[in-house]
Design a protein that fits this description.
Length: 422
């Protein structure tokens, strides 16, 4: 950490709360909860805010929590952490690894793991709230701590907005958030402008006519229809998108049939699209619809395919001025060697952007590293970062607690104080 740490009026007290925060982090890591089921996590977050003196509102968008700390004149700054975990079976071997299971919406018993680091975001925001509440002489304004449910299903931000977030709480001058990622722990990266992709997930149901496998002339084979569709969908990016633009089209599910000699009567495709520009997004979605319908026509399908959205994440766009302010604050506190400006957006997606976009207020979202720097360096030397370093959503993904926790708390305090400093 920077030498200035102990003299900082807010972060000078960080050492004193780190072991408590570590305990909180391990506790939520070991007790992960699926999207929209974050009852225990949100209760713990709310208790911590209350203990720090925040005025707390629970149940905003089902399990969301909003804490307000008014501290004199000045801007309102919203800090957001997401709380949900994923249906993944943890394989980290950590002493505090999750063994939890839960019932998903389809009624299936599934393993649950904090495979995206939202437990780290939650612990960091709890720490930020505690530190700023102790050091009210060092800042003025209103701090708004938001613990959001269901980021992984693209529902949580919208659920809080639909539950009156904008009417029930003061409009912030800036909305700030962060995400732990695979780079080395202790580092921070950011990008002005578009910083994460838009994501659209679709289900496509294609209809044929079932028949005996020995009599294809009686069928309209949805397996061929779907197979041809999958291949043709891969020409969207290669043949319809300009070389300087980017998009990802992934078919993750292709399902049809039950038995080798039965031609089924329908096929299911589930796919995901990532784009970095609204025009490109519209173009890709339009091309998908065109190709799916045309392939159904080519097979003489008895019904038009059904295209149903599964979920949608907006583009995450960082306000350039606000990002500049945050970046300057990061560099002066952490030093230039720990802070990196990214030349390109990351292909992951987030619903964080909805808060700023829909509230018409600037927002900034940055990334903190979570991998043991020694392991990361070794993988980098061997040219094996993508093979050897677990990514978010992997059963092996778990940030090293130190200095990830200190960096996440520090980054949020520093960014918030770029507005709240008296
Ligand atoms: Zn995730
Ligand atoms: Zn995440």
């Amino acid at each position: 950490m920077a030498a200035s740490d102990r003299s900082d009026p807010v972060l000078g007290s960080l050492d004193g709360i780190v072991s408590d925060l570590e305990g909180f982090y391990k506790d939520i890591h070991a007790h992960p909860e699926l999207s929209m089921q974050e009852e225990r996590t949100s209760a713990k977050a709310a208790e911590r805010l209350e203990a720090a003196g925040f005025e707390v509102t629970r149940g905003v968008g089902k399990t969301g929590v909003v804490g307000l700390l008014q501290n004199g004149e000045g801007p309102t700054v919203m800090l957001r952490a997401d709380m949900d975990a994923l249906p993944v079976k943890e394989d980290t071997g950590l002493p505090y690894a999750s063994e939890a299971t839960a019932t998903d919406r389809e009624g299936n018993e599934v393993p649950v793991m904090h495979a995206c680091g939202h437990d780290m975001h939650t612990a960091c925001l709890a720490g930020v709230a505690a530190l700023l509440a102790r050091a009210t002489d060092a800042w003025s304004g209103t701090l708004m701590a938001v613990f959001q449910p269901a980021e992984e299903t693209a529902e949580g931000a919208q659920a809080m907005i639909d539950d009156g977030l904008f009417d029930r709480f003061p409009k912030p001058e800036v909305v700030l958030g962060q995400h732990v990622m695979p780079p080395p722990a202790g580092t921070i990266s950011y990008r002005a402008g578009t910083t994460q992709a838009a994501s659209d997930s679709l289900q496509i149901r294609m209809f044929g006519r079932g028949a005996h496998g020995s009599m294809p002339e009686s069928s309209i084979d949805p397996v061929i229809m779907a197979a041809a569709t999958v291949m043709r969908l891969q020409t969207i990016v290669s043949r319809e998108i300009r070389a300087t633009e980017a998009a990802v089209v992934t078919v993750g599910v292709l399902q049809a049939g039950t038995k080798e000699n039965v031609i089924p009567d329908e096929a299911i495709i589930k796919m995901n699209v990532r784009t970095f520009d609204e025009e490109v997004r519209k173009k890709v979605l339009g091309a998908i619809e065109r190709i799916v319908n045309a392939e159904a026509d080519a097979s003489d399908a008895p019904r038009r395919p059904e295209i149903t959205p599964i979920d949608r994440y907006p583009l995450t766009v960082n306000d350039p001025d606000a990002t500049g302010r945050v970046a300057e604050a990061f560099s002066s506190y952490f030093g230039h060697d720990r802070v990196e400006g990214l030349s390109a957006p990351v292909s992951a997606s987030e619903d964080f952007g909805s808060f700023g976009t829909e509230w018409h207020t600037p927002s900034v979202f940055w990334y903190i590293g979570g991998t043991d720097p020694v392991a990361y360096d070794r993988a980098k030397q061997a040219g094996r970062v993508s093979q050897d370093i677990p990514t978010n959503h992997s059963p092996n993904f778990a940030p090293v607690i130190h200095p990830t926790l200190e960096t996440g708390v520090g980054a949020m305090v520093v960014a918030a104080r770029a507005w709240l400093s008296s």
